[in-house]
Specification:
With about 290 residues, the chain is mostly helical. It has one domain: Formate dehydrogenase/DMSO reductase fold (Up-down Bundle), CATH 1.20.1630.10. Helices cover about 70% and strands about 0% of the residues. Helix 8 packs antiparallel against helix 10 and helix 10 packs antiparallel against helix 11. The chain starts with 17 loop residues before the first helix and ends in a 9-residue tail after the last helix. About 45% of the residues are buried.
Length: about 290
C-alpha cells in the first residue's frame, strides 16, 4: 500500500463515523423499501421503512446539530427568511422530511389511525409518489458523499448507483425476513428470489467498478483509499463483511435453496453487508494531500 501519510497532515481519514454509516444504511433501506413497496403494499414493510426513515434522519440531524436547538433554529431561520434552499444539505433535509412524513402517514393510515385515508395510501398514485421519493432520497444519500471536498475516493458517480443497488439488497433482505416470519404473504413476494439474484450480481459488479476507478485515479488520496479497502486496514471488513458474507454467500444461498432458515441467514447477512459496505467506504476516505 502507498504510504503518503507522512507527506502532509491533511491526509487523514475523513471524520464520518458509524453514526453516518447507519444513517446511510437506514436511508437506503427505507428509500428502496418504499420503491419495492410499490408492488408489495403491505403494512409490515411500510412499518419497517417508517422506522428506518426516522432513525436515519435522527442520526444525521444529531450529527449535524444539537437536537434540542434544531427546532427553534429552523423556525427562526424560516421566519427571518434566511434558510438557504439552494444548499445541498437543505435539499437533503427536505427530501428526508418528505420520506419521514410520507411513510408515517402511510403507517398511521394502515394502522387505522386515519381510516379514511387507507384507500388513498394503497392506491397507485400515492405508492408511485413514495417510490419516487424513496429513490430520490437514496440517490441523495450517495450524492452527498460525492460532494465532500477533498475526499477524492468519494468523488465518483458510482457511489449513488452503489447505494441504490445496496439499498435494493437491504430491502429485499427485509422482505424475505418478513416473509419467513409470516408477516408478508409469499404470493406477494414471489419475485424476491429473482430480484435478489440480479441485485447481488449488479451490486458486486458496481463494487468492483468503484474500486477499479479509484485505483486508476490520478488522485493519490483515491488510490490510498482504494488500497485501504483491498489490502489495508479496512480490507477484512471489505472482503469478509461486504464481498463474501454480505454478497457472495447470500447470492449462493438464493441459488441453492429456498429453505426458510437458510433464507433468514441470507437476509441477515445481506443487511449486515449493506451496512459494512457503507462503513468501509466511509472509513477508507482520505483527504487529498497537499504536497509542497
Amino acid at each position: 500500500m502507498m504510504e503518503y501519510t507522512n507527506l502532509t497532515m491533511q491526509l487523514q481519514s475523513a471524520n464520518w463515523g458509524w453514526s453516518i454509516a447507519f444513517f446511510l444504511w437506514f436511508v437506503g433501506l427505507s428509500g428502496m423499501g418504499m420503491f419495492l413497496n410499490n408492488w408489495v403494499r403491505e403494512k409490515a414493510l411500510v412499518y419497517v421503512c417508517t422506522a428506518a426513515s426516522f432513525l436515519g434522519t435522527l442520526l444525521v440531524v444529531s450529527h449535524l446539530a444539537r437536537l434540542t436547538n434544531l427546532p427553534m433554529a429552523a423556525i427562526n431561520s424560516l421566519l427571518a427568511g434566511s434558510l438557504n434552499f439552494g444548499s445541498w444539505m437543505m435539499i437533503g433535509m427536505l427530501l428526508l422530511s418528505v420520506q419521514c412524513i410520507g411513510t408515517l402517514f402511510y403507517s398511521l393510515s394502515l394502522a387505522g389511525v386515519f381510516p379514511g385515508f387507507k384507500k388513498l395510501v394503497l392506491g397507485h398514485g400515492y405508492n408511485h409518489l413514495m417510490a419516487v421519493a424513496g429513490v430520490a432520497v437514496t440517490i441523495y444519500s450517495g450524492f452527498l458523499l460525492t460532494q465532500a471536498v477533498g475526499v477524492t475516493l468519494w468523488n465518483t458517480a458510482l457511489i449513488p448507483l452503489l447505494w441504490i443497488m445496496s439499498g435494493m439488497a437491504s430491502s429485499i433482505s427485509s422482505i424475505e425476513l418478513l416473509m419467513v416470519s409470516g408477516k408478508l404473504p409469499k404470493e406477494k413476494v414471489f419475485w424476491s428470489r429473482r430480484t435478489a439474484l440480479w441485485t447481488e450480481v449488479v451490486e458486486l459488479f458496481t463494487i468492483f467498478a468503484f474500486v477499479h476507478v479509484a485505483l486508476s485515479s490520478t488522485s493519490a488520496a483515491a488510490r490510498v483509499g482504494a488500497e485501504a479497502l483491498i489490502g489495508g486496514p479496512w480490507s477484512p471488513m471489505f472482503w469478509a463483511g461486504v464481498v463474501v458474507f454480505g454478497s457472495i454467500v447470500p447470492l449462493s444461498i438464493n441459488l441453492i435453496t429456498r429453505n426458510h432458515a437458510a433464507l433468514a441467514v441470507s437476509a441477515v447477512l445481506g443487511l449486515c453487508g449493506a451496512l459494512l459496505l457503507r462503513a468501509s467506504v466511509l472509513f477508507a476516505g482520505y483527504y487529498e494531500p497537499v504536497i509542497f
